[in-house]
Design a protein that fits this description.
Largest sheet: none
Number of helices: 5
Helix content: 55-70%
Number of strands: 0
Distance between the termini: 108 Å
Amino acid sequence: MKEEDRILKEIGKENPFTVPENYFDDACKEIVGRLPEKEFLPAETPSAWEKIRPWLYMAAMFVAILLPIRFMMERTSPASGEGIPANEYGALSVDECIDYAILNQAIAMDDYSFYEYMDEEYEENND
């Protein structure tokens, strides 16, 4: 501590660096004055292709992602027999097969067709 106090007494606490007067006020004017004169042109309006291009790229990205997924889903579809679930004994019971077939048929139908199909099944079973 004593040595630090001695050094501070010798050098002092004043900042030896100074900035010329009005340096920061005049700096902006001086920099702008050095720039060459240029004519500012209005911004060009983007063409139709430049407006549509990002949307097309995004659509292509989704196709590139979803197409392989759809292809893989078709390869393991229940119609091929690979995707049919099995119970603990390794085979489906008759009721499970019927339920599974109805479910697969319902996925391929619209709502009205499905209700009509279920109504026919109900009438056949209750006659």
